[in-house]
Specification:
Length: 447
């Protein structure tokens, strides 16, 4: 059900709570070393490595990345990345086991196969990586060669995530990403032949010139390729923040109702093709671990989106990466030059962050359950935090319009989205964020 004022509300994606735009300059820099010192062997870890380079800049992209002009620049980056890993690990005196490693970007395979091997070797030397750890890598199919695939397999990569976005050539030209479906199919076949059988694909809606028919065809295309998971993200047009987006013709962007219909179309087609809907924007085959986690109530949310990763501590490496620890969040300097200079000087390259309170932890748990399950038992969540749910009653007034519009229900301490509220889980979750109003204009729209 399309309701304009709810669908167009500017809201955080809540991959963290509080959201990253509330981090404070300097705070994480001061606290991060102490948070690292406090980690114990009992706390499992996840690692995220951000590689901020691409061969070509896509016009829709909102990530911290740039075009690498020469291999020497990437080699310098890798040298600093290795040093950062050692700087962080030296502060973690008794690290817990690593259950997940995620290479993102940018395009991680902009590193040479030899550099990828050096990074993995350093990670394994610095941290105790479990034998069954998931090792995932984001990939641009256009630049993935056989040498990289062979190296990924040798290094134990278990999951590859391919950016597809849309399979229509006209839409691809409008976003500066020409990528034939035959190429994607070939790269997936090569990955599987090498033993990397868990494959994700990213799709987008709200792109210039895109229609519901385009979304249908793209969903069917990735389904036909047999990918295990599909993420469907709405394009956020913020050219004042990401200058590359200024190249997009705004007159071709779909309106709010068209965006909503495209999001609905993607879910309708993927579910018809056998995928389970996971949270607000992910889909997985029933046997995939993400679908299993969702059925068992173990689905979680972190800076990579939905995950079955049990670790609550995430250590980020590379420019702009964010670490999430029991005490709070710490984000690295976003620009390669700033980040490199700090690492070269032997300093942790954190620029900003936020210490979190016991109330933040409670609200974070509530928001996570709403975004993972579409429902939450406030009393049960509060009990797990040794607290009372009365702290959360301020959300009820903000929920009232959603209840009137048939998008949510409240029964005692039980809050749930209705079937008509399926697209509005972020809107419902935002009701538990009392600090949202001052930041409303700095987020993507809800749908």
């Amino acid at each position: 059900m399309f309701l304009h004022r709810h669908a167009t509300a500017a809201l955080p994606r809540y991959t963290s709570y509080p959201p990253a735009n509330r981090f404070k300059d300097g705070e994480g820099r001061e606290l991060y070393p102490w948070w690292l010192d406090g980690l114990t062997r009992a706390e499992p870890l996840s690692l995220y490595i951000h590689v901020p380079f691409c061969a070509q800049l896509c016009w829709y992209c909102g990530c911290h990345t740039s075009v690498a002009n020469d291999s020497a620049r990437i080699d310098r980056f890798v040298g600093h990345l290795l040093k950062e890993i050692l700087l962080v690990s030296s502060r973690v005196h008794e690290p817990g086991e690593v259950c997940s490693i995620h290479f993102g970007g940018g395009t991680p395979t902009m590193m040479s196969p030899q550099a990828m091997a050096r990074v993995m070797s350093t990670l394994r030397d610095a941290f105790p990586v479990r034998g069954d750890a998931e090792i995932a890598m984001e990939i641009d199919p256009r630049t993935l060669d056989d040498a990289h695939v062979e190296t990924m397999a040798t290094l134990g990569v278990t999951r590859a995530s391919l950016g597809v976005q849309d399979v229509d050539p006209d839409v691809q030209r409008a976003i500066n990403r020409i990528q034939p479906t035959e190429l994607v199919a070939d790269r997936i076949a090569t990955l599987r032949a090498a033993g990397i059988r868990s494959i994700n694909a990213d799709l987008m809606y709200g792109l210039p010139g895109q229609t519901v028919d385009h979304v249908h065809r793209s969903a069917d295309a990735v389904s036909a390729l047999g990918v295990d998971r599909v993420a469907v993200f709405g394009y956020a047009h913020v050219p004042w923040f990401k200058k590359n987006q200024a190249a997009i013709d705004e007159t071709l962007l779909p309106g709010a109702r068209e965006r909503f219909e495209q999001a609905e179309a993607a879910e309708e087609r993927l579910v018809a093709d056998g995928y389970a809907a996971i949270g607000i924007d992910h889909f997985a085959l029933p046997q995939d671990s993400l679908a299993v986690a969702a059925r068992e109530g173990r689905l979680r949310r972190n800076f990579q989106g939905y995950t079955d990763d049990p670790a609550k501590t995430l250590l980020g490496f590379g420019p702009s990466s964010i670490s999430a620890l029991p005490g709070g969040y710490a984000q690295n300097a976003p620009h390669v030059k700033q980040w490199s200079e700090a690492v070269a000087a032997g300093r942790l390259p954190v620029q900003r962050g936020l210490g979190i309170t016991w109330e933040d932890r409670l609200r974070r748990s509530v928001i996570e359950r709403l975004l993972c399950d579409g429902a939450v038992d406030l009393r049960a969540v509060a009990a797990r935090h040794d607290d009372e749910p009365t702290l959360l009653v301020d959300a009820f007034a903000r929920l009232a319009p959603l209840i009137r519009d048939g998008l949510a229900t409240v029964d005692g301490w039980q809050v749930a989205a209705t079937p008509a509220g399926r697209r509005y889980w972020r809107t419902i979750a935002a009701c538990f964020d009392p600090e949202l109003a001052p930041f409303t204009g700095r987020h993507s729209v809800a749908v």
